[in-house]
Amino acid sequence: MTNVLIYSTSTCHYCHMAKEFFKENHIEYSEKDVGTDMDARREMIEKTGSLGVPVIQIGEETILGFDKKWLQEKLGIK
């Protein structure tokens, strides 16, 4: 199974949409709340150069934002 990680905050609408997408499609994921976890925030900034969320990592690929088509393609969802 592909490792899926989402960097998010509790108030981010697109973060909630991404997590709902994962749940609806039975995709297991790990989550790091960059609003409360400063180490995770630094890690996310190192990967993207941005404070924007969500940041979604699937395997070795990372995307900033919620892009349903990209997620479907990377996760093999029709």
Automatic annotation (TrEMBL):
PROSITE patterns: GLUTAREDOXIN_2. Pfam families: Glutaredoxin. One of its GO terms (biological process) is cell redox homeostasis. GO terms for molecular function: electron transfer activity. Signal peptide: none annotated. It comes from the Bacteria. InterPro entries: Glutaredoxin (IPR002109), Grx-like_ET (IPR051548), Thioredoxin-like_sf (IPR036249). Residues 4-62 form the Glutaredoxin domain. CDD domains: NrdH. This is NrdH-redoxin. The lineage of its organism: Bacteria, Candidatus Spechtiibacteriota.
